[in-house]
């Protein structure tokens, strides 16, 4: 039996260790000009600051209130020998973001960012960068937080539910045309036989945590905006502004630019924003929007269930592969159906089993064993948290073994080079092929080797030149 | 020297034995390299994979 390596840290999923946030990766690829314009807004600076890793945040706070630049050597003196690597990594990230420009002599924060971030912390100014609260409306009271949550959840789950059921032939409520277009552009869904079908990256997307899903879609939105000639800075600063707003409060649309007004309808479709109607002069950010840059969960509770325990976890998995999911949420059931054979359904409970067939189906859809396991881990019922390890090892191993089983045969097209005249001849050609890095298999005893397809033209040319030279 | 076009199969030895048996019915192996590697005819790859899948499927048991 092949040995299966247990994944380290499965029981302690932590966001802090996993590289930088995907928005920051996107920002690093933007021009200095774009970044400088973005840093003019206090709300953007504060939001970006919140997305950074703890050490990066510490560096910034250390430098924020210094009026003059600090020598690199002074800064370096704070760093212990063990911390040097982490410190240098931070400096690189901050330099890429143009927050702390690289210098061999002195370090100083980007002056635009410095003044904006100071303003964000101390308050003051009248830029309206954190949104302008709308005046109290006599006729309509603002929606309650519960209403907003229900609304955001309904919108978001419509999108996900549409994706998950696209392959099954039953079509639930359709999201708007723009959302469908976005899903198609991001490669999460693709047109097949005239209808949109979920793709393998779409299946993987479904198993991601909501926060990651949201950002993935928004990044795609940003990419699309570039093509639609919308101003990237306006969009980014609007998103970041939303993330600093207060849930359950109404904001006025007066200060918004034309681009941002156009975004309102898109964001309404995703459930990030609530408006009484399309022409309303005010809007409310939903929880999806206000938690964009924070670590609190973006979705309140699963619809209908009404208990908070549902967001923490609802899946009980036994060593005999039986799975009990305490949920009545159609989306969660549909997602489970991707890799579980469901047997029976009760008002608040679904029972199924993880079988070879169900896992094979998931693997065929492009979902990996690790994704299944991490989904089960993140959604494990609080009762399961008492177990160590969290998921039964037998089931984890078996899921990985089923995945290995799928890849029992690897194939690679190419050419078998054989019948060399002499050992020297063989080694000469083999060396050349090795330099090209195209050798897949070799056997000096049998004097033959197998080279990949793309190396063939070169090897043939090499041999021909050599024969011609010898003749 | 000679260059022969083909597909290199990398597999475990159990699968290789099945391939050898299948080859007796209908030949597709160009060169049997070692315990884990065989070179087969390029245009037979998908037929071989399908038959292999069916063969492996016979060795599994389902609860249902």
UniProtKB/TrEMBL annotation, chain A:
InterPro entries: Tfb2_C, TFIIH_p52/Tfb2. It is found in: Nucleus. GO terms for cellular component: transcription factor TFIIH core complex; transcription factor TFIIH holo complex. GO terms for biological process: nucleotide-excision repair. Residues 397-463 form the Transcription factor Tfb2 C-terminal domain. Keywords: DNA damage, DNA repair, Nucleus, Transcription, Transcription regulation. GO terms for molecular function: ATPase activator activity; double-stranded DNA binding. Its main location: nucleus. Belongs to the TFB2 family. Component of the general transcription and DNA repair factor IIH (TFIIH) core complex, which is involved in general and transcription-coupled nucleotide excision repair (NER) of damaged DNA and, when complexed to TFIIK, in RNA transcription by RNA polymerase II. In NER, TFIIH acts by opening DNA around the lesion to allow the excision of the damaged oligonucleotide and its replacement by a new DNA fragment. In transcription, TFIIH has an essential role in transcription initiation. Component of the general transcription and DNA repair factor IIH (TFIIH) core complex which is involved in general and transcription-coupled nucleotide excision repair (NER) of damaged DNA. This is RNA polymerase II transcription factor B subunit 2.
From TrEMBL, chain B:
It is found in: Nucleus. One of its GO terms (cellular component) is transcription factor TFIIH holo complex. InterPro entries: TFB5-like_sf (IPR035935), TFIIH_TTDA/Tfb5 (IPR009400). Its main location: nucleus. One of its GO terms (biological process) is nucleotide-excision repair, preincision complex assembly. The keyword Cell division does not apply. SMART domains: Tbf5. It comes from the Eukaryota. Keywords: DNA damage, DNA repair, Nucleus, Transcription, Transcription regulation. Belongs to the TFB5 family. Component of the 7-subunit TFIIH core complex. In NER, TFIIH acts by opening DNA around the lesion to allow the excision of the damaged oligonucleotide and its replacement by a new DNA fragment. In transcription, TFIIH has an essential role in transcription initiation. When the pre-initiation complex (PIC) has been established, TFIIH is required for promoter opening and promoter escape. This is General transcription and DNA repair factor IIH subunit TFB5. It comes from Sparassis crispa.
């Amino acid at each position: 039996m092949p040995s299966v390596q247990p994944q380290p840290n499965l029981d302690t999923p932590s966001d802090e260790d996993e590289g930088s946030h995907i928005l920051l990766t996107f920002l690093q690829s933007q021009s200095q000009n774009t970044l400088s314009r973005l840093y003019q807004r206090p709300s953007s600076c504060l939001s970006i600051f919140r997305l950074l890793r703890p050490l990066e945040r510490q560096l910034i706070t250390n430098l924020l209130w210094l009026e003059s630049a600090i020598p690199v050597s002074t800064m370096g003196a704070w760093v212990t020998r063990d911390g040097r690597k982490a410190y240098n990594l931070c400096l690189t990230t901050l330099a890429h973001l143009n927050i702390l420009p690289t210098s061999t002599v002195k370090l100083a924060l980007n002056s635009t960012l410095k003044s904006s971030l100071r303003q964000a912390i101390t308050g003051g100014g009248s830029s309206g960068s954190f949104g302008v609260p709308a005046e109290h409306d006599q006729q309509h009271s603002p929606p309650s937080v519960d209403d907003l949550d229900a609304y955001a959840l309904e919108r978001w789950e419509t999108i996900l539910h549409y994706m998950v059921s696209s392959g099954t032939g039953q079509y639930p409520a359709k999201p708007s045309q723009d959302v469908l277009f976005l899903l198609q552009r991001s490669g999460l869904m693709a047109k097949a036989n005239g209808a949109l079908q979920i793709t393998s990256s779409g299946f993987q997307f479904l198993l991601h945590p909501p926060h990651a899903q949201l950002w993935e879609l928004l990044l795609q939105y940003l990419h699309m905006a570039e093509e639609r000639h919308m101003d990237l800075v306006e969009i980014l600063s609007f998103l970041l502004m939303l993330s600093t707003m207060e849930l359950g409060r109404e904001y006025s649309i007066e200060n918004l630019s034309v681009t941002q007004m156009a975004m309102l309808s898109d964001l309404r479709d995703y459930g990030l924003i609530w408006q009484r109607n399309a022409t309303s002069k005010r809007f409310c950010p939903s929880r999806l929007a206000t938690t964009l840059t924070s670590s609190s969960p973006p979705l309140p509770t699963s619809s209908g269930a009404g208990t908070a325990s549902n967001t923490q976890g609802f899946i009980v998995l036994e060593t005999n592969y039986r799975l009990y999911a305490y949920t009545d949420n159609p989306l969660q059931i549909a997602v489970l159906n991707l890799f579980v054979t469901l047997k029976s359904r009760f008002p608040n409970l679904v029972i199924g089993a993880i079988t070879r067939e169900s896992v094979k189906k998931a693997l065929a859809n492009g979902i990996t064993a690790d994704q299944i396991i991490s989904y089960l881990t993140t959604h494990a019922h609080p009762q399961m948290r008492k177990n160590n390890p969290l998921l039964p090892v037998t089931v984890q191993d078996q899921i990985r073994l089923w995945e290995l089983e799928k890849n029992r045969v690897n194939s690679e097209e190419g050419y078998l080079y054989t019948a060399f005249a002499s050992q020297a001849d063989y080694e000469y050609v083999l060396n050349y092929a090795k330099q090209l890095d195209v050798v897949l298999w070799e056997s000096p005893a049998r004097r033959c080797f197998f080279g990949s397809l793309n190396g063939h033209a070169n090897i043939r040319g090499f041999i021909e030149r050599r024969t011609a030279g010898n003749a | 020297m000679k260059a022969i076009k083909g597909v290199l199969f990398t597999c475990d030895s159990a699968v290789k034995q099945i391939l050898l048996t299948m080859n007796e019915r209908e030949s597709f192996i160009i060169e049997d390299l070692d315990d884990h590697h065989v070179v087969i005819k390029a245009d037979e790859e998908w037929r071989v994979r399908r038959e292999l899948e069916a063969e492996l499927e016979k060795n599994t048991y389902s609860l249902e």
